[in-house]
Write a structure and sequence with these properties.
This protein has helices at 12-22, 33-39, 41-50, 66-75, 89-102, 116-125, 170-174, 185-188, 193-204, and strands spanning 2-7, 28-31, 55-62, 80-84, 105-109, 129-133, 158-162, 180-183. The termini are close together. The chain has 205 residues and is of the alpha/beta class. It binds ribulose-5-phosphate (5RP).
């Protein structure tokens, strides 16, 4: 099980401070969508240069022009880029093709998608990695529910989990054995990010 640090709504300098503090405990550095909108591929490139031994996920949240956006992410040094589950199958196939050519991976973000039929379609298209994701805005109403795992049960997919995961919810989530646990605010907003990341890493190891 890998721990992915999500860097969202942060300045360039704060992103690097946080990575430096928690780098020993994390496996994947996620460059959040808002951070990419602010700084573009330059920050993905810089993280890749400074942390060559960490996997990098560019949270592009691509939903169209798949080839172009996947090429942007991989050529900047990302190992994984995200594509929305509601995208056209053609968009998803295009990004999977670029990933194969680049030696990278596509993570399909299941934000607001809860159809089992869509999961089966995604599997048929060749998707291998999906993220069960409770969005930031929805987190104001509810916390991450482990029932979400039923959506992907029995399918041959790697599973990531995101959406307000914290030290309190992590034990329940671990029981479902996801491949990747994505944590943003619980680490980036903590008084001691290094300690929270260390505890989380210990829990999942
Ligand atoms: O993709 C995201 C937002 O769209 C976040 O990276 C993900 O939700 C993790 O952050 P947090 O733990 O703060 O919810």
């Amino acid at each position: 099980m890998k721990l992915q640090l999500a860097l969202d709504r942060l300045s360039w300098d704060r992103c690097f401070q946080l990575i430096e503090e928690v780098s020993e405990s994390i496996d994947i550095i996620e460059v959040g969508t808002g951070v990419i909108k602010e700084y573009g591929m330059a920050i993905v490139r810089e993280i890749h240069n400074r942390y060559p031994n960490h996997e990098i996920l560019a949270d592009m949240k691509t939903c169209d022009a798949g080839k172009h956006e996947a090429k942007q992410a991989f050529s900047a040094g990302a190992d994984i880029t995200t594509v929305m589950a509601f995208s056209a199958d053609l968009t998803i196939k295009d990004t999977l093709e670029v990933a194969e050519e680049s030696g990278g991976e596509i993570m399909i973000d299941l934000l607001e998608v809860d159809s089992r039929n869509r999961m089966e379609e995604l599997s048929k298209v060749g998707v291998q990695l999906v993220s069960l994701h409770l969005g930031k805005d929805r987190q104001q109403q509810e916390g991450f529910q482990t029932d979400l795992f039923s959506l992907v049960k029995g399918l041959d997919l790697k599973i990531a989990v995101a959406g307000g995961v914290n030290l309190e919810s992590l034990p329940r989530i671990i029981q479902e054995k996801p491949d990747i646990v994505i944590v943003g605010s619980a680490i980036t907003g903590a008084d001691n990010p290094k300690e929270v990341a260390r505890q989380m890493k210990n829990m999942i190891s």
